[in-house]
Amino acid sequence: MNKHIVPFVCVASTFAQTLVPSQSVGSSKPDQVFYQDSEMYVETTSHGAGTYDVFYNRLAPEGRWFYDDNYGYVFQPTIAVSEFWRPYSDGHWVWTDRGWTWVSNENFGWATYHYGRWIRVSGIGWVWIPGNEWAPAWVSWRQTDDDSYCGWAPLPPEAIVSVSAGISSWCDNRYDIGPAAFTFVRFSDFWRPSYRGYYLPPEQNLTVINRTKNITNIIYNNNVINNYGPQYRRVSQITSAQGHPLQTYQVNYAAQTQRNAAFKTAAQGNQLNVVAPPQKLNTVATMHPRVAKQLGKAPVQRGWQDIQPAQQQQLRQFFTKQAPVLSDPPAKLTAQKQKIEPQKPNTPVQVAKAQEVHIVPNNAVTRQHQLEQERIQHAHNAQAARQEQIQYQQVTHHATQPRAVPVQSAQPHQATVYHALAQEHAHAPQPPHPHSEHRPNDEQHHENSKDKKEKKNFHADQR
Length: 463
Fold this sequence. Notes:
17 strands, 5-stranded mixed beta sheet
């Protein structure tokens, strides 16, 4: 029996090696699904003390937060209100030791293109759902057979990657990603610092996508996520022919937990310096973002809008034929247990259904909310007291004049106060009128002193 075990071990070892892609900078491994012993990756919190607070704090000036009943808190950059804007367009791809990495020209790009996923909400536009793990990018890749066009589409929140299964060429039909979600550019423009103004209008995507195949390959390797797609050598040949060879980089990740850290991804020499929160964030938060709007269960546009049903069916069949979904694909992401309890505006506190953060009751958050309410109430009371004092002074002034107190002009809740003050003032001792026969007390005292002095002198004369 032993003579059969050794060959089997060798075959198994050879099979395992074919599933692990090489990390050489000059190669890319499309159309592979990565399988790895789950014991080699142990999830811990040793990556740093980063939490979702970094998103809620740092992204607030760059856009607005919504609350969606399916995904929890979602973020929309200010520029995304334009129907012409799309994710992964203002920036460019660079080839690194972790695959194709997106370098954004947008201030919010450190978060929205490396953590979390995107969806397009009907009537709202593109919104970003936070995630807890950094990756070079989260996209589905496609390219034409003649190497003329390359395209990518943001992955939705349902797309997950694990140490046992990555995201491969079946992702479009697995997650129902349609043509309009893709950004297509010519390979000859791949070197440009920004693809704005160079990608195809979305309405032309349908004519191109029929000539493409999916080349997505997002995997775990050495406990980090890698994003493989187009073959680097082929892309570099095309751009070099245009006089723009592509450089290769090594990712230099500098995790920062400071509140005001300058998050940025930039090339320096042969290194791609990534200044960002820890690569693995703790799925907790101690605050709630200010919610601009409740979305409810908003309808999501997957990229099939404006396409006839017959064409949709035909294209879906084309996707399925190209890359059938695995018999045992990774489970679609659902609302997992989180660790804060967001409070929806004007509604009772409810458990969020966010993508990866299940928020639980937090005494610090509750106490902070109470203190904020007390501060607001104290300020309101102080303002009301100042207003009453001003009104009392006005009533006192008007009471000395031969005209009625303007009770009717007061606010309804202040009229009773004004009337009571006027009555109290009417029964109080009033100062004499300047022309009254009654003289002030000091003058009367002077007259009394004069009378006493005259009487004293009169008695002295009598003696």
